[in-house]
Every structure is written in C-alpha cells, then in structure tokens.
C-alpha cells in the first residue's frame, strides 16, 4: 500500500455529520473514517445519511462475523445444541456473551437507544443501496482469549470476575457508563477501568484491533478496488486507525492479520497438570494402602466426600435439580481422576435431561438474563450456571482433597 495523503479532518459541507470524521486518500481510494457513538441516535442518522448520499461504493463496519450474526439473529443461541456447547468447552464464553448482552439490553431499556444502532443502520442501508459490506473487526472470542493470554496469570481472575460481576450486578446503568459507551463498544467500556492502567490489557483490546481493522481494509478494500469507502467505527478507534493508514502497510496483510487472530496454545505444563494430579492422587492411595488398609480407605473416603460434597453443594447455588446434585456428588470424585471429562459436563448433561429447556426459555433468554434472578429462572441460563458451579466446585474439591491426602501421608 502506498503512503496516504491526509486531507482535512472536517468533512465537506455537503456531508456534515454530528460525529468526528477523518478523510484519508490512499492511492486511488478515499477512506472516510466515521467515528460513531455506540449509544447514539445521531450516529445512526449519520450513517444513514452518508450511505444515502451516493458518495460511497463500499462500506466497512466495526463488526466481526459472530457479532454480525448476533445482531442479525438475536435468538441464535436457540439454534445451537447446548450439549455440544458443554462438550466443546464453550460454556464460559456463552455465559460471558449473555452477560454482555444483558448489559446491552438494560442499557437499551434505560436510554431508549439500542447499542449498535449505527451498525444496524449500516447493514440496512448498504443492503438497500446494494453496496459491498465488509466486516473488519476481529472476532470477539479471539479478543477475549488474547486478553486472557496477554495479562499476567494473577490478574486474570480479577479482570474476568470484575467483567462478569459488574455486568451481572448492575441493575441500573450509570451516566458514566453511558458516556464511556459513546467512545467504545460494550466490551471496551466494561474493561475500561482495567485497560487504562494495564498496557497488557489495552494492547489486545484496542491497539491490536486498530491494526487488525486496517489490515482487513488492506485486504478487502485495497487501494484501487473501490473509489470511496465509508468506514464505520467507534470514535475511540479513529486516531489509531488513521495513524495506521498513514503508514506503509505490508505487501501481504493477510499474514499479519492471521497472526493477530492466533491464540497461544496451552502450555505443555498446563496440559499435563490434570494427568499429573491424577497420578499423584492414585499414587497417594497406593502409598496409603501399602502402609495399612485402614489409612488407604480413609484417603479414598476423604477424596470422595470432599470432591462430592463441594461439587454437589456448588450446583445447589445454581438451584440444580436434586437428582443433578446427587449425580454430581457421585460423579465429581471420579471425573477428577479422569481429565477427559469434567464434573460440569456430567452435571449439565443430567440437568438438561431432567429439565429440558422449552421454546419459551430460548425466546425469553435475552430478556431474562437482564435480571440477576432471571439467570436462575430461565432453564438455559440455569444450565450454564450448573455447568460452571459444578466445574468450580470440582476444581476446589480436587485441590483441597489433594492437600489433605498429602498431609495425611507426609504430615508430621
């Protein structure tokens, strides 16, 4: 890509907008970066007016495929197989997506403005005008995974518990939160209090996405392919993307873009840890029985009771069916010794079998999760909670029981 020639920031008089706008000419193509507020009727009106002006022959928007699907198919979760979600280990991501969606829904109800209205306007107007539409943002799941891997391990729990806790607990969205949403999307505004003080968080959340969206433009709207491209992005991305477009870009943007999509594989130590724990526990049992039968059985009983009680009790927090609690109590001590299957998977499977979600559960899911009690009322979200609580209970039981066995064998 050749060097760009930056024109004035103020848009032409015949195309005035309420939000900031930046015009950049790269080769034979003009890119109009429109900085929008994700909670603003004016931004949606700006998008509609610009596309209807006929000045553009392509539109690019700050959405990824999954967010585009969620926007155009709000009941998409109902089309998924919940059992497969648990099998593939996606329950946590689905729960986080529901929590963010709940935040959006509460915001819409309080402000009267649906977050992402400007993106919806871009979708509708580009379709009506028969203009090519490009989705240039990185997948939200990839961004969350890169955030997870980029921050130090000791910060991960506080950041993600803060994310879910803040989204789930706030029944009223403050004026300050609404103002933050005018600069970035729900994900950015939720992480903002952490990102401001953490370069390791800011990089994957903002800097990498600025670069990623410019690389997508270099691929999908390369100079010369279109005459004039409207780029609809959150106002918080304007400065970074403009600076990126002003610099020469790689000849093969796809390679760098794919690198920004990659997530580091789990370390060999982390993958081996469950098997190591299993080996240590079984070795502990063997040592106990080699000393005397009574000690061996004592270790086995404590392992089963600690694992079973903590996992079963954890599912009670999610108001699981009594048979689910009983099944989790029995399964957790066994699944803790088998890294290929988790207690949460068993608990969720039993809960799904006993309390099959109805059509109305899926149709009301997005509304139900806007209230804390709705997570327990709706059978879909409650099953997610059963999975998560059983998993956490089993993990706690494994470590506590493991230390108990070590204490019995090697303690004073």
UniProtKB/TrEMBL annotation:
Annotated stretches, region: Disordered: 1-21
Composition bias, Polar residues: 1-19
Extent of the signal sequence: none
Transmembrane segments: 272-289, 301-320, 326-354, 383-406
Keywords: Membrane, Transmembrane, Transmembrane helix
Pfam families attached to this UniProt entry: TraB_PrgY_gumN
Protein name: TraB/GumN family protein
Native source organism of the sequence: Halomonas aquatica
